[in-house]
Amino acid sequence: MSRAVRLVLAGEPGSALSRAAEMALGAGAGVTLAVSLEGALDHLRGPGADIVMIDVRLDVPRLLATMKAERIATPVVACGVEASAELAVAAIRAGARDYVPLPPDRELIAAALMLVASAEAEALDARGIDALVGQSMAAVERELILRTLDKCRGNRTSASAILGISVRTMRNKLREFEAEGLRVR
User: How many domains does the chain have?
Assistant: First the structure.
């Protein structure tokens, strides 16, 4: 990363959230802890952030609706300790990029941070887009999935998090590629 990714962790301080903060710091991110939805929004309105991780017990749909209304385009990842499936689904339906169970996995935290860093790098390298012109969507999708999987050293969970797709979708896509005769790591 050329600069530290700025992460806002929103939720009540606790061992799992603190552990996520430690992991993000270890991965080179700048971390701000916000104990409430309003605290997270205040930080996004002020210094801003590159990514938000929010406890699903907070009102994730309200956060996302407020961000949309105020045109704050920061990606949001919902997280939680033993959260109900309903809360996780509500967060995803409201627009969260993904759901990460807590206590966090070091690779999932790194993958979320890599998502932001790689998006930044792509924005700086417009030539990468020109190389896609003339290719089918299926070919572009296949190449993106396989290259991301390769960068994650075969870790499907991390690659799925970076791409913003579920692990199930990743597994199904890889099965399709194998059926087409491609070698999948």
Answer: 2
Is 142 in contact with 177 (CB distance < 8 Å)?
yes
Q: For residues 132 and 179, give the distance between their C-alpha atoms in angstroms, rounded to a whole number.
A: 24
Q: Distance between CA atoms of 148 and 142, rounded to whole angstroms?
A: 10
**Alpha-carbon distance 95 to 76, whole Å?**
8
86 plus 37 within the same structural domain: yes
Decide if 9 contacts 32 (C-beta within 8 A). yes
**CA angle centred on 112, ends 97 and 142, rounded to 5°:** 75
145: domain CATH number? 1.10.10.60
For residue 77, the model assigns a pLDDT of 86
For the chain, 185 residues long, the average pLDDT of each consecutive 10-residue run is 72 73 76 89 89 88 92 86 82 86 70 62 54 78 85 82 88 90 77
